[in-house]
Amino acid sequence: MLHFLFDWIYHLGGLLESNGWNPALVKGLSGLSVLLVLVAAAIGIYWLVRWVFWFLLVRVRRHGGGLWAEVLLKRKTLSLVCYFVLVLVYKKAIPFIFDELSSWIPFMDKVFSLLALYFAMRMLISVLWTIYDLRKAVSFERTVAMKGLIQFVGILVYFLSGIVAVSIIVDKNPLVFIGGLSAASAVLMLVFKDSITGLVAGVQIQRNDMVRIGDWITMPAQGVDGNVMDISLTTVKVQNFDLTILTIPTYSLISQPVQNWRGIQLADSRRMKREIHLDLTTIRFCTAGMFEDFKRMRILQPYLQAEESKVKADAQEKGAEEWDGANAYCPTNAEVWMKYVELYLRNHPRIRKKKDFTLLVRQLPFEEVGMTVEIYCYTDTSQWVAHEAIVTSIMNHVVAVLPLFGLGIYQRQGQGYPKEAGKEA
Question: pTM for this structure?
Answer without folding.
Answer: 0.58
